[in-house]
């Protein structure tokens, strides 16, 4: 039985590796930049750009493997994953991420089954390691969004300074795209290019909100659009908006400081049972292996895992505060 399961794992692993190797010839970074500019040019004059940018990007390949691309194109979740990868600035396709998760699932799961002989433990290890690439992309996206959020006040100050010396909003955004570092400069550069191609201001700002779904970006775009509709001094409006964002950012930092102990407690309480279980297994494998070899032990593992997840979610709900 163990030999058959091992051969199955090795067979699946070999197929996944071959597919991953075949999908390695994705679009280069230069090609992606050209395609982004072409998308903006195609979209000139269209009324609803926030919806159009999704439709245009659906023409891109989800994977360089034809059958995988056709399969992923039918999934409603695939465009969201692609947008998720873009927001994290990860140059992967949806198919590449899927195959990487598959490899990270198969190899550790096989090693866990080969070491313990327990299907339950192998599947559990596979799910944890298979989710590791998604978790890495999520953390990279979070860091990029945080960096963008920190750079918004500086970008607004540049726009305000440019407006006060007589430049237009379009020229002010061009100044931000040149002076600010990524990701702020890159996103404003794309917005600046869209406006130069003739896209309406509202559509270009809607695209910016789609690419960078931050509350501060929504506040800035809303302030600009309201000023365009009602009139007034745009420089003064953006200056006050920058002050609001800075105050909100300061309050958010205070909240993170006051809830640091609670978040650390949550991580410790969540990881402590897992770490202790691994240590006890290396100290006394026969004793710990009874948890997945006996029916009662499996039920206890299910109960313990459920309570750990519920406890972690409760602590997360307590310490997470929207500012």
UniProtKB/TrEMBL annotation:
The chain crosses the membrane at residues 6-27, 92-113, 119-138, 264-284, 296-315. One of its GO terms (cellular component) is plasma membrane. Keywords: Cell membrane, Membrane, Transmembrane, Transmembrane helix. It is a multi-pass membrane protein. It comes from the Bacteria. It is found in: Cell membrane. It holds the Pfam family T2SSF. Residues 156-278 form the Type II secretion system protein GspF domain. InterPro entries: T2SS_GspF_dom, T2SS_GspF_sf. Its main location: membrane. PANTHER family: INTEGRAL MEMBRANE PROTEIN-RELATED, PILUS ASSEMBLY PROTEIN. This is Type II secretion system F family protein. It comes from Telmatobacter sp. DSM 110680.
